[in-house]
């Protein structure tokens, strides 16, 4: 069965992984976000209890 022979695809997989890990990934991670999150103050609005008509 040729699919069990790791000789052709194992090398390609390892080279692809190494290319992604050492070359492509650092370049992608070095970009800065164009829309960075802002430091907004979180305001909690006071809630009023619900008045049930049957109580």
From TrEMBL:
Q: Which Pfam families match?
A: ATP-synt_8
What subcellular compartments does it reside in? Mitochondrion membrane
- Transmembrane segments in this chain: where? 6-24
Q: Please state the protein's primary subcellular location.
A: mitochondrion
The UniProt entry lists membrane topology as: Single-pass membrane protein
Give the GO cellular component terms, alphabetically. Answer: mitochondrial membrane; proton-transporting ATP synthase complex
A GO MF term:
proton transmembrane transporter activity
Q: Identify the InterPro entries for this entry.
A: ATP8_metazoa, ATPase_protein_8
Keywords, comma-separated and alphabetical: ATP synthesis, CF(0), Hydrogen ion transport, Ion transport, Membrane, Mitochondrion, Transmembrane, Transmembrane helix, Transport
GO BP: any one term = proton motive force-driven ATP synthesis
Q: Does the keyword Mitochondrion apply?
A: yes
Which family does the similarity line name? Belongs to the ATPase protein 8 family.
Record-given protein name: ATP synthase complex subunit 8
List the source organism. Answer: Panurus biarmicus (Bearded tit)
